[in-house]
Amino acid sequence: MPSLLASSLAPAAARTQPFVLLQSSTAQSCLAVLRYAIRETTSRAGGCTLLFSLLYPPSIFVEESQLGSDRLQILDWTSNVPGYVENGLEVQSEMLRKVQDAPQGPLTVVVDSVDTLLSDIGSLAKTEQLLSSLFSLVKSRRDSRLVLHIHAPSPLAPIITSTRFSSSLTHAIARPTALVSHLATAYLTPPPPLSPPEKFWRVFTPIAERHYESEKLVFGAEGEGSGGGAFLVEVLVRGADAGGRRRGVEKGLEGWSADAPCELSSLAALKPLFVRRVVEEVAPDPTQNLSFNLNLTDEQQRSRAQVPLPYAHEGNPPEKANMPPPAAILYDPDSADDLDDDDPDEDLDI
C-alpha cells in the first residue's frame, strides 16, 4: 500500500496540495519528515526551494550534497533575535521580498518554524497576516508549495489548519511509538488493521491531543526517552490527491524509520503487536486409556445406520408409512350439555 504522506509530499502533488504542515512536539520531533520533504523538492528538475531557518540550523535539514545546489537557497536567520542583535532583519518584509525575488518556475517555501516567527514578530494577528501573504505568493506560481514547521501546542495551529487559511491541507503530526503501545496494552486497541479504524481513532485522538500524556509515556519513570529514529506519523490529507480526484478528508497512521516512511509492522517497537501467535490446543481423547472400546468399526457404523428409527418417517405421511391414522378426540355429550342451535342467551331477560 503506497504511503499517504509520501504521495502527498511528492513534487507532483504540489498542484493539488500546495500547503503542508509538519507538527512536532516535546515527545516526538518531526524534523526527519521535514528533511525528507526538502530532499524530495530539491531532487526534481527545475524549480527552486527557499529554506528559512529560524529555529534549527540548516545543517539539520540539508545534506552536504545539497549545499551546492542552485535549486536550494538557504536563509539562516537563527542568529537574528529581535532585541539582542543590532541592525536586525525586518523579518516580515525581508521574507516577502525573498519569495518575490525567487527565480521563475515552481517554488517551495519552507519555514522553520512558525512559532519562532511568532516570537520574533510578537503579534498573532501580524504572524497570521504574514503567513497568508506568503501562501498567496506561493499559490500565484504553478506547482508551488508552502511547507511550515510548527511545535505543538501552538496558538497558530487552529488558525493555519482551518479551511479559511487553506481549503487543501497535508498535516503530518509526529507521534511516539510508546503512545500506540500504551493504547494496545491499556485500552486493548492496537492500530489498524489489528482493530477497526473507527474504534482506534475514537480512542487514539483524545489521548494524543493531551500532549502531557505522550510526554509522560516518553519521559516518565517508565518511559524510554526520545532516542531512536523510528516514530509514528499521523497523516491528515484534506482536498484532492495528486491526480486531482476529490476525496474529502483522508486520515492514516504510518511508520517512519531511517528518514523514510515505512509500514507500522516494520517498526521494532510495534512488531510484537503484529506477530500472531497461533496456539493449537489439542483436547485429550476421552476414549483413550479405557478398559473397554467405545469406538465402532466401519461395519458396525453401517449396520447402525440401517436400523429404522420408530419416530423417523423420512418426510412421508403416516398413511404411506403403514402407520395408524393420527389420533383424534371423540366426545360424547352429556345429558346436561346444551348442544341445540337455539340462542344460548334466551334465558336472559334482556
Automatic annotation (TrEMBL):
Location within or outside the cell: Cytoplasm; Nucleus
Molecular function via GO: tRNA binding
Biased composition (Acidic residues): 334-350
Keyword annotations: Cytoplasm, Nucleus, tRNA processing
Pathway in which this enzyme or protein is active: tRNA modification; 5-methoxycarbonylmethyl-2-thiouridine-tRNA biosynthesis
One cellular component term from this protein's GO annotations in UniProt: elongator holoenzyme complex
Family: Belongs to the ELP5 family.
Protein known as: Elongator complex protein 5
